[in-house]
Design a protein that fits this description.
Layout lengths: L1 H14 L2 E3 L5 E3 L4 E7 L4 E4 L11 E3 L1 E3 L9 E6 L2 E6 L5 E3 L10 E3 L7 E6 L2 E6 L4 E6 L7 E6 L8 E5 L1
Length: 167
C-alpha cells in the first residue's frame, strides 16, 4: 500500500514538472506562457519596443520601464529544445543576443532568436541564462537613458534576478 501511494505521489509531482535539481532540492520546471517580466529590485518591467517603420529586419535594445500597462511589456515564453524562446507580444521581436560576449546587449530582433535557459533562484524569481556560458540577463542602470539589459557573468546580484508575472 505504501509503495503504491509513494508511486502515485511521485507520478503526480513528475506530471506537474517537479524534479530533483543538481543540489537535491525540489525545483519546478518553468511553464511556458504569457508573462510580464519584472526586476524585483528596481520594480521595472522588461520592454521590447518595435523597430521604426514597416520594413525590417529590426533590432533594438530591450529596455526597462516603470509603467506596466504597455503591450510592449508582455512576453510570450515558449519551449524550444531544452530551453525557451522569449518573444515580445507587442513588437513581435524575439529576445536576441548577437554573441556570447560579456556586456553584450540583449536586443529585440525581428528575424531571429536566441535560446535561453530560465533557472529558478528561489521563490518565484529566476535568472535568464545564455546556454553553455556563465552569462545571465543583467539590468544596466543609466541615469540619462532607459535602463537596458545585457549579458554579464552570474554574480547573484539583484540586478540579475527576474520575476515572471503570468497573464
Amino acid at each position: 500500500m505504501l509503495k503504491t501511494f509513494s508511486s502515485f505521489i511521485f507520478a503526480a509531482l513528475l506530471s506537474q514538472g517537479f524534479f530533483l535539481g543538481a543540489n537535491g532540492e525540489a525545483t519546478k520546471k518553468f511553464a511556458p506562457g504569457m508573462y510580464k517580466i519584472v526586476n524585483p529590485e528596481s520594480l521595472t518591467w522588461v520592454r521590447g519596443l518595435p523597430g521604426p517603420g514597416q520594413h525590417g529586419p529590426w533590432m533594438s535594445p530591450i529596455t526597462m520601464a516603470w509603467d506596466m500597462s504597455s503591450i510592449y511589456q508582455t512576453w510570450e515564453v515558449s519551449a524550444f529544445e531544452e530551453g525557451y524562446k522569449i518573444q515580445n507580444y507587442g513588437s513581435k521581436m524575439f529576445a536576441f543576443s548577437r554573441s556570447h560576449e560579456v556586456d553584450n546587449l540583449v536586443l529585440g530582433f525581428s528575424d531571429g532568436f536566441t535560446k535561453w535557459y530560465i533557472e529558478p533562484t528561489g521563490g518565484s524569481e529566476y535568472r535568464i541564462h545564455y546556454p553553455n556560458r556563465d552569462l545571465v540577463w543583467t539590468v544596466n542602470y543609466d541615469d540619462n537613458f532607459p535602463d537596458t539589459v545585457s549579458l554579464k557573468p552570474f554574480e547573484g546580484g539583484e540586478d540579475q534576478i527576474f520575476r515572471f508575472d503570468k497573464l
